Every structure is written in C-alpha cells, then in structure tokens.
Amino acid sequence: MNDLARYERRRRIMYGWMLLSPALILLSLFAFIPSAMTFWSSLFSRGTRRNPSEFVGTGNYDLLFADPTFSKVVVNNLIYAGVTIPVSIIIALAMALWANSKIPARGFVRTAFFTPTILPMIAAANIWLFFYTPGLGVLDQIGALFGFGSVNWLGRPETALWAVIIVTIWKEAGFFMIFYLAALQTIPPDLKEAADIEGTSRWTYTRRIVLPLLMPTTIFVAVNALINSVKLIDHLFILTKGGPSDASKLVLYYIWELAFSYFDRPQAAALTVMVLAVLGVTAAIKFIILDRRTHYQ
Amino acid sequence: MSDALNSGQTPLYGMAPKRSFRPRLTLALDTFGAWTLAIVWIAPLLFAVWAAFHSTSDAVNFNLAGAWTLDNFRTAWDGAPWMRYFFNTFLLVTVVLAGQLVVTTLAGYAFAQFQFPGRDVLFIIVLLQLFILPEVLIVENYAMVSRLGMFDTVFGIGTPYWASAFGIFLMRQAFKSVPKELDEAARIEGCSWFGVLWRVYVPSAKPTYLAYALVSVSTHWNNFLWPLIVTNSETTRPLTVGLSLFGAPESGVNISVISAATIMSVAPLLIAFLLFQRQFVQAFLRAGIK
To answer: Cα separation of A266 and A46, whole Å?
Structure first.
C-alpha cells in the first residue's frame, strides 16, 4: 500500500514536469537565456576585424552614460510615461463612467471609445499622419479656421513627442475603459441607493465610494500602461522615426536603432539590461506590495 | 451620522420636484460629455475611411461634396502584394494561436492540478515573463531565432510567443475552478491524465479559450516590431510590416492611397469586431481580470 502511494506520488511528479517541459523549454529559449545573454554581452566591447571583442566590465554602461542621446531618450521616455499613464487612466475612467450611465445611444458611445484599440498601431499612426501633415493636415486646416499658421507637428522638436503621446492615448484609453467598465458593474446598486437616500452628492459618491472600489483596477491598468510606455513604439516608425534630432526617440526605439541600424550590439545590450532592471523592480513592487494591499475584498 | 439620517429623511416629500430636475440636468450634461468625447474619439478613423474613398485633393480640402471613388483602393492594391501579406498574417496568427493553446493548456493543467516540489517557485518564474517582454529582448531573441535557423519564417515570428505566461496564468485559473470530484470520477472510470484533461478540463474552460483566442489573434494581427526584425521577404512579412513599408514617405505614396491601404488592412479585424462586439469586449474583460 505504502509502495503504491509512493509510486503514485512519483508518477504525478513526473507528469507534472512533463506537462511543464514545453513551456519551460520555450521560456528558456526566448526569455531566460536571452536575458542572461543580454547581460553577458553587455560586458564585452564591440568586436571589429582589427580589435576582437574583449571584456570591458561596465565599459558599455559608462559609454551609455556619456552618450547624450541616452539621457535624451530616458528623459523622453519619462515624459512619455509620465503623461500617457495618468492621462489614459483619467480618460478611461471618464469613458467608463459615461459608458456605464444611462445615456441615449450608449452602444455607439462604447463602440466609439473602444474601436481604436482594435487597430494596429501602424494603422493608427497612418491615420494620424493625415492629421499632422503640415499645410495639408487636418489639424492645420482646423487651425487655419482660427487664424493660426501652419505647424509642422511632427517636424518640430517642441511638438513631435506630444504628437506621439496623443496617438498613444487615443489608442489605449478605450482598452483601459473596458476594465473600469467591468469593475463598475460589480459595484452593488444598493450602495448608490443608500448614497441617494443619504442625499450624498454625485461627486462625493464617486470620490468616496466608486474610486476606492476601483483601486485594484486602477493598479492593474497602471501597470499595463507602464508596460505599454516601454513597448508601444510602433507608431514612431511611421510618424517621426525618433526625430527631429532625437526629440521623440524612446528607449526601445533607441535599442532597435543601436542594434539594427548602428550594429552596436553591446550598447544595445547594456540599454536592454537597464530596461529589464526597471521592469524587474516594477514586477517586484506589483507582486510583493500591491497585490497584497489591494486584495482586501 | 444622525444628522445625515435626518437630512435624508425629513425632506423626502419636499425634495421631489428638485430631484426630478437635477437628474435630468446631469443626464443632459453626461450625454453631452459622452457624445463629444465619443465623436472626438471616432473622428480620426471615420475621417480616414472617408478620405480613402475620395481623391487626395478633395480629402485635403475637406470637400464634402467630392465624388466617391475606388481609385485609391485600386492604386493601393496594385502597389504591394497584399494578398500575400493577408495570407502571411493569417498563417501567423494561426501558428501562434495553435502553439499557444497546446503549450498553455499543458502548463496550466500542471500548475492547477499537479502537486510536486518546486511548483510554486516555477510558477513565479513563469510569471516573471509578464515583465521580461519579448519586445525588449529583440536583440538576443533575433540572435536565438537565427541560431535555430528560423530567421524569416513564420515560426521565427511565432514560437517566441508560444509559452505565453499570460495564457498559462489564464488556463491555470480556469482549470482550478473545475471541481475535484469531476476529475476523480473520470479517473475512477479509467481515464488517463490526458483523457481527464481532454474530456473534463478542456471542455469546461471553453469560455476562457474563446477569450484567449480573441485576445491572441487581435494582438498578433496587430504586432509589428518583432515581425519587422525577423522578416526579410515578401513571403513571410505580415500585413503590419507590409503596410509600414507601403506608407513610408520615401515611397512617395499620397495620403488618400495610404488611407485606402490602411482601411483595407484593418478591415477584416474591424468588421469582425463590429459584428461580434459583445464577445470581443467580454473576451478582453475575461482576459484582463484576475
């Protein structure tokens, strides 16, 4: 009997590992080994025919810190994240509150908010290109009605990053709305009734009851928005290519450029390691602190 | 507290007229706000659709009376091997989804129903992949795909996404909610572990599969950066990469034609979305809520 139990246990262990093996092999091949290799290759210099690649320790990182483009793309990405995350969240929340209220043509409103989410970023960028083109673009035409001159939105360092930010917000706010909409529908209607009987104003009800109940959703959405602010760079390829003079260049685009335009793999690796470190810290905060705090329900 | 109660109770009658006015005002304001935002939000897309059916000069001059035309679509269609791109994208989303379903089902089943040492640590390691984005590892993944001889193939684009941590997580959650008794009953009937998985777990997780499939297909239909890096020829390039090459300013294509190409390439997914909107939204919801 005891032997049978032990045999059964061992069999289950074996099956467990067997079932997991495809996933583990693939994750190793395309996530863990590449991460380790990235770190490893960031410690070696770029090899040329005359100078073979050699161990340089933090040399690549020192080079990056001395590179003005590096600080430019980091600052750009901080602005990009710092604007797109809160603005997308606020717009998504407003969309959800409206899409959940009893207004006429609610179906149309929901569809309008959500549709940009379905489009590829490349398509969204093509559509917005139409709006930004100087002279011909729709924004200029609208501006001309009010007597403003033509603005080269994508070609000027002061406006290029903002033009990119607007496209990102347009694309992701509707997606985040969905999560708020779902959360709103789980709020029991008696809370609203009780608030009405108490004579609570709508603003107080929203601020004191709805927003705290939406907190877990907000954290989920914020983490997603943060990840998007690192990886959502497709539109740069269409709209600005990071220009003019790096004004709209983001970190991942710079990694791509270092590796595939300048063929400077070690620099690209060093930059990737830094991005992975930031994402790792985010993951730790999410799993260790936030997940514990928000699961109070 | 008692103040609040009193103020709520006493003026119940007196409040009636006021209450019927204020909700109407807030409803009007809500409607105005929601409609304005909705129109602003959908306008760029509607404008692109409109422009795609008009000549460039009508489009840039806002000539609403301009004649409708299909010329832009004809020019766009002749400008690139779209049929091939559509086929490539279709093949790509199929390969990605098929691989993901197999890998995430097996792993989700192991995490949900098998007890073995190291399981929880492994699960955390898998979840780490939610943050080690494939997009960030483009340089080394490119090297890996080349090393495996998969550069410029549909598998080169697809396999890095097969072991989706997100999918494994979803499947684990779905399988966990299957009652243990069902599992045991099937075993007593003499089902193997695979039989139990196939006959009990997979059917019970159908809604999760549907949700995951919709999310996966729309993600990979739209994916751009990774396919851009690992493709090099017409025979593997998906729609998004083809569209970006077509719209590149160097190729000197005019803006109405770009609109036509854009509308053309998003049309299948967009039409599917408009037809199955409810299912789509439900799918995204199910996929996003933990």
So the answer is: 6
- Please give the C-alpha separations between residue B77 and each of A96, B92, B184, in angstroms, as whole numbers: 39, 21, 57
Between the CA of residue A102 and those of B28, B29, B31, B38, B220, what are the distances in Å? 11, 12, 9, 15, 35
Residue B76's pLDDT is 82
Q: Do B134 and A122 touch (CB under 8 A)?
A: no
Domain boundaries along the sequence of chain B: 2-74, 79-288
**Closest residue in A to B277 (Cα–Cα):** A111
**Rounded-to-integer distance, Cα B71 and Cα B58, Å:** 13
Phi, psi of A155 (to 5 degrees): -100, 0
Per CATH, domain A60-294 is 1.10.3720.10: yes
Residues 30-49 of B with CB under 8 A from A: 30-31, 33-35, 37-39, 41-42, 44-45, 47-48
The domain segmentation of chain A, as residue ranges, is 60-294
- Nearest-CA distance from B45 to chain A in Å? 7
A–B: how many Cβ contacts below 8 A? 274
Give me the residues of A, 7-36, that contact B with CB < 8 A: 12-13, 15-17, 19-20, 22-27, 29-35
3-state secondary structure of A55: strand
CATH of B79-288, one of 1.10.760.10, 1.10.472.10, 1.10.3720.10, 3.90.79.10: 1.10.3720.10
**In whole angstroms, what is the distance from residue B185 CA to residue B202 CA?**
16
Residue type, B126: V
- CB-CB under 8 Å, A122 with B224: yes
Q: Which of residues 231-290 of A touch B (CB under 8 A)?
A: 231, 233-234, 237-238, 252, 255-256, 259-260, 265, 268-269, 272, 275-276, 279-280, 282-283, 287
Mean pLDDT (whole number) for B108-137: 85
B98 at A interface, C-beta within 8 A: no
| Contacting B residues, span 50-79, partner chain A, CB-CB under 8 Å | 51, 60, 62
Rounded to the nearest angstrom, the minimum Cα separation between A255 and chain B is: 8
pLDDT in tens, B190-226: 778 788 888 888 888 888 888 888 888 888 998 999 9
Q: Which residues contact A13 (CB under 8 A, 6 or more apart)?
A: B114, B116, B117
Percent share of chain B, pLDDT over 70: 88
- pLDDT, one tens digit per residue, over A212-257 is 888 888 888 898 899 889 988 999 998 888 878 888 999 999 999 9
Give the closest of A41, A179, A275 to B136, CB-based.
Answer: A275
DSSP of A124-191, one letter per residue? HHHHHHHHHSTTTSHHHHHHHHTT-----TTTSHHHHHHHHHHHHHHHHHHHHHHHHHHHHHTS-HHH
Eight-state DSSP code of residue A288: I
